[in-house]
Amino acid sequence: MPSNPPNLPVDDMSARHPGLSDPVAACYQEAARVCLDRHHEPPVEFQLRDEDVLSKAQVEWQKADERSRGAWANETDATEAGAYCFALAATELAKGLVAVRRAETKTGADYYLAAPGEDVEDLENCFRLEVSGLDKGTESLVASRLLKKITQARRGRSNLPALAAVVGFRAQQILIK
Questions:
Q1: What distances in angstroms separate CA 41 from CA 44, 46, 67, 110, 170, one per listed residue?
Q2: What is the 3-state secondary structure (H, E, C) of the chain?
Q3: What is the pLDDT of residues 113-160, one digit of tens each?
Q4: What is the pTM of this model?
């Protein structure tokens, strides 16, 4: 593992992810900051496991203000939105894939991913990404949740290949499979 891990690319995500508008990307990043503030002081390293490849990513952020904490006082909503931010940034960092569109209900996924600049008009060259987040989970709980998300993606109504990503905010872990 490198001694200076790369930064998790959570800033300005809408510039790289055509499936995220500016407000949606900002919303996800703000939620992630609130989730991070619950357990950590900036900066912090997250373990990133892509399939069987283990690496680390540095996470830097400005602490959330009182208004942001109040807007994201619902822990479930904040964790879900923050997990979208981290999962999309992690798949960008680890696999070079970006969000190109939000997935429809029942597809077993949250987003469609593709390589930057890929023609995605018919989604034929896309991957599905199913995302989950845990605020207080341990490393073993994060791994267990990943297995559930893999099963959910397999059951989705789509023939596109799928990835699952689970973010553990307290556990400082992002798993992708």
A1: 7, 13, 19, 29, 12
A2: CCCCCCECCCCCHHHCCCCCCHHHHHHHHHHHHHHHHHHCCCCEEEEEEECCEEEEEEECCCCCCHHHHHHCCCHHHHHHHHHHHHHHHHHHHHHCCEEEEECCCCCCCCEEEECCCCCCCCCCCCEEEEEEEECCCCHHHHHHHHHHHHHHHHHCCCCCCEEEEEEECCCCEEEEC
A3: 999 998 888 899 999 999 999 999 899 999 999 999 999 999 999 999
A4: 0.96
